[in-house]
Write a structure and sequence with these properties.
Blueprint (H helix, E strand, L loop, with lengths): L1 E4 L6 E4 L6 E4 L2 H7 L4 E7 L3 E5 L4 E5 L4 E6 L5 E6 L5 E5 L11 E5 L22
Parallel strand pairs: 3-10
Antiparallel strand pairs: 1-2, 2-5, 3-4, 4-9, 6-7, 7-8, 8-9
Bound molecules: zinc ion (2 copies).
Length: 131
Amino acid sequence: MHKGSCLCGVVEYEVNGPLGDIMYCHCSRCRKAGGAAFAAVSAVKTADFSIVKGQDALKTYRTDGGVERIFCGHCGSPLITKRETQPEVVRLRIGSLDTPAEKKVAMHIFVGSKADWDDIHDAAPQFAERP
Ligand SMILES: [Zn+2]
Ligand SMILES: [Zn+2]
């Protein structure tokens, strides 16, 4: 079981199952959404993911591409994204975990659109878009 929360602590969640591969997404959308070089994400089964506190505080930004970016409405922490085409998984922003992930980054994705100031210094495989 993994647990996490947003910056202000209003929202808490649990993952009652394994985390998927950790991916660093360097796409321009994730950069904007997080204000950082990349988003650290892991796909988890929707059935394994539950909000245990602060459901009312969650806000959703729905993009044109059929993606819902769900974040804490109080502190703005990005927590999960959902894709209309893949309702069986949520993509967890693992920077919000409070428990150890117990795995390392598996790959870099959307490296083709990474920021010009973003240099990758590890040996994980890199993909121009999605593998
Ligand atoms: Zn919050
Ligand atoms: Zn991205």
